[in-house]
Amino acid sequence: MRVPEALKPWRPWLDWFDADIVDLLGELLLRLHPMLGAFRMRAQHGVAEPEGIDDLRRRGHYERLLLSEWALADEVPEEFDRRAAGGEHLFLSPKLVAREADALTAAVFDTGPGQLGAPRLVHVAMWILLAERAQAAKARFAWGVLGAPGVLHPADAPERLKQLLQARSLVPGGEGNAQDARDRHEREWRCALDDADPSPGERWSIGAHAAGYGLGHRVDVARAAEQQLAVTIASRQARRELRLSLPPPERSSALLRGEFERVAVSRLTEVTTGAHGGGKLSLKQPPLISCGGRYLAVPLAGENAANVYRLPSNEAMRLQAPKTARWGKGKSLLAATLNERHFAGVIAQEEWLEGWQLDGMSRMPLPPPGDLDVTTGKARLLPCVWLKQGSGHRRLLLLSGQRKLLSWTLQRSGPSACEVVAEQVLAIARTSVAQVVYLRCHDGHLHLHSSLHAEALDCAAFQGQARSAFLSGRCSLDSWQGGCCVEQVVGGHGGERSSIWRVFMRTAERPFTEHEIVLPADWKVVGLGQPDGDDIGLIALRPDRKALLRIGAQERSVLYESPSPISTVSVAVDADLIALVDLQGRLVVLRDGARKMLVYTGGDDG
Is-above-0.85 flag for pTM? Predict the structure, then answer.
């Protein structure tokens, strides 16, 4: 049976079902999968063994010092000593994994009356997700029911899933008296799993709402609004919440009764949540997020057009059909901006620049040679901001590939000549209807400027050459609350390369603070997350591009795991919002530290 590309990780289990049930389960799998977080496996007796290289660190044993550092000891011993005294040496950090003998994941399902009916759909989806998750980690998956402590079953055949669906009880916790029975059964399960050989490294409690984290990870399933389920997945590392729309009873009743079998189908309808709109989404141009995070624009592949979406205010609302903005055949966009729902940009002509959808700026003078490369068809559109203040003031700011911030102002006679506002500008961001902030590197310092003020909002020492940068935060009047990150490249011998990210943060109570994060070169930083207390983290793609992580000063956390490699990502500057498009053309929008999924739509599963 053919299944969509996004569902192929679960193909061995989906082959058990007919096409209608695959359609139903597919949506649940795709919605729940990003909520699981990273696979965590506890090593037997607390022992973990090194397997390959995980990262580069400033501290470590000199047996793992980079070869490029040892080369300095031979060629420039004084520099080697200086780097050692300053704590600047780079060490290989081994990846620690549990021994394969300990690879066991266990899930315990509550089969009491609160979980009868629609919540069992989530049980089935979690059963499949955890089975595939364990298999991918070379682990074994076993499951049991809450009312039978210590009894674990394999998950190797459709009969085992039917066994779960047939395990129903009319009292909470399987047997006994309500909450007391549930608590007693969980204690008994905990003791049984501790005494098992091997003891499960990852443990899941799935069922009705209860306090705490259950056996390690708790999945609460409860009815919410009409025709909706509320799902909460909580552990000591993270808490994620999701609303699921229930399918019609006639679609799910056969599955819940355990009546399913495989039948041949020619094609599976794609699984999608919400309205995608016409055209395939671009896999090269990242989405544009409006100031405040209410609107999103995604260019279309092979077309002179972009879809503009109004984002739902919460994950329970459906995405409405987008508006499509088109800039005409034979024209190539050089730069683009999104002002609320208004998508606009700059089109390069032979003797001028055309301000498309920019009121009064239809013919803008070209900047001097060397300030702007007007070659179109680039991998990334240039960032620009269109400022409208009152009835008369209009201004366009554009950051060129030469790191020059260019400006055109609308005058009575038309657009003014191009003005270079600043050079060595690393990043710009709109923070209000009339304000832009930008980060520039000059004379050994980073300067954060506002378009409304002559003096810099902030300044920090920065030695060396910057490669790229991101902003994150909010600006009110002359005060900036947030942070920035700047990349420095470190080259090595023998192909060893890494990048150093300097991360700066300012809060209302504290001046600029700084920390450093070292990443291997095959990690791709795509933005800077919103401040979280006294910490602010990089948003980065794992080398296989199937996971999006937050990397802070002290810890890492997985924000989203994708069934298909992620192609492009945008991180909002002034809102806790991340938008991405995977290689299947599927649009995903995450909010609140990626704990909530606002949008999951589109995709080419043909």
Answer: no
